[in-house]
Amino acid sequence: MNANFEKIKKYIVIGLFVFASILSLIFMGKVAINYNISDYLDEKTETKISLNILEDEFGMTADVQVMIENISVDKAKQVKAILTDVENVLTVSFDENSADYYKNGNALFVILVDGDEYSQKANDVVKDVKQALNGVIEETTYYGGGVVENATLRKAIQTEIPFVLGVSLCLVVA
Question: What pTM did the predictor assign?
Answer without folding.
Answer: 0.67
